[in-house]
């Protein structure tokens, strides 16, 4: 790979270092005069160059969906988190179950989630997930009552350090919520000895129960259209 324009590289590197959120190519292009912006291919080439340049540093350039950000490597997280003044937020088992079902089975309705978990979903859990911007309404199901369909967001990918949903750990490896919490870097407020098996997800060689089949039904044409990512 040939080295990109040095000044363009410096501008993009500086922008990524000071940005408080991941930046898309479209956002990076807004920094330049409208009459003489760099080509998208040039910006992408710079991003690829920076990814290689930072490959062996304590800070890495990470792609999140269609955006990029600089972040410290995960191995240094125990030291970096000690700088935070606020106590880490602790999440309940029920909230994590709900989030996991949405992430793996989206788009899903609240009824789908309740069928898989076998219990009702608290309105506060949905409000918390919406408030954290980890999920959003992506459409409605064409059935009586037109229940809302939920899916994950770019903020979900950003928080859990995922490039895309394909990077989610396989379900077969994540029946235990403690394992999920470690994989997704969540701190859970779980009682010692509590059953932390994710409902509706079967281990290899086992049958799946608890309404999973209903949640896996293909979406209607309307759902597929409304569930497109932004």
Fill in the keyword field for this structure.
11% strand; Arc Repressor Mutant, subunit A; alpha+beta; single chain; 2 domains
Task: Describe the 3D structure.
Helix 1 (6-18) packs across helix 3 (40-53). The protein folds into two domains: 6-81, Winged helix-like DNA-binding domain superfamily/Winged helix DNA-binding domain (Arc Repressor Mutant, subunit A), CATH 1.10.10.10; 93-226, Orthogonal Bundle (Arc Repressor Mutant, subunit A), CATH 1.10.10. The strands form two sheets. A three-stranded antiparallel sheet has the order 1-3-2. With 230 residues, the chain is an alpha+beta fold. It has eleven helices and five strands, in the order αβααββααααββαααα. A hairpin with a 7-residue loop joins strand 4 and strand 5 (148-152).
Could you give a short description of this structure?
This protein has 230 residues and is of the alpha+beta class. The protein is 39% helix and 11% strand.
Can you lay out the helices and strands and say which pair or pack?
Blueprint: H1 6-18, E1 23-24, H2 25-29, H3 40-53, E2 59-64, E3 67-72, H4 77-80, H5 93-105, H6 110-117, H7 123-131, E4 135-140, E5 148-152, H8 154-159, H9 177-183, H10 212-215, H11 221-226
Helix pairs in contact: 1-3
């Amino acid at each position: 790979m040939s080295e990109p324009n040095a000044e363009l590289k410096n501008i993009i590197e500086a922008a990524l270092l000071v940005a408080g959120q991941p930046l898309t190519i479209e956002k990076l292009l807004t920094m330049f005069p409208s009459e003489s912006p760099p080509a998208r291919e040039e910006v992408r080439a710079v991003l690829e160059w920076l990814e290689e340049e930072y490959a062996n540093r304590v800070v890495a350039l990470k792609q999140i969906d269609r955006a990029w950000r600089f972040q410290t490597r995960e191995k240094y997280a125990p030291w970096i988190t000690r700088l935070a003044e606020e106590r880490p937020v602790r999440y309940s088992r029920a909230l994590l179950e709900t989030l996991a079902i949405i992430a793996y089975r989206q788009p899903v309705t609240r009824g789908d989630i309740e069928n898989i978990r076998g219990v009702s979903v608290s309105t506060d859990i949905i409000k918390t997930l919406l408030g954290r911007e980890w999920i959003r309404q992506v459409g409605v199901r064409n059935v009586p009552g037109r229940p809302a369909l939920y899916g994950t967001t770019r903020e979900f990918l950003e928080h859990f350090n995922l490039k895309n949903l394909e990077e989610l750990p396989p379900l077969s490896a994540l029946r235990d919520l403690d394992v999920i919490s470690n994989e997704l870097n969540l701190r859970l407020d779980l009682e010692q000895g509590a059953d932390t098996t994710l409902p509706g997800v079967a281990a290899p060689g086992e049958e799946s129960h608890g309404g999973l089949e209903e949640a896996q039904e293909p979406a209607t044409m309307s759902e597929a259209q409304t569930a497109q990512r932004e």
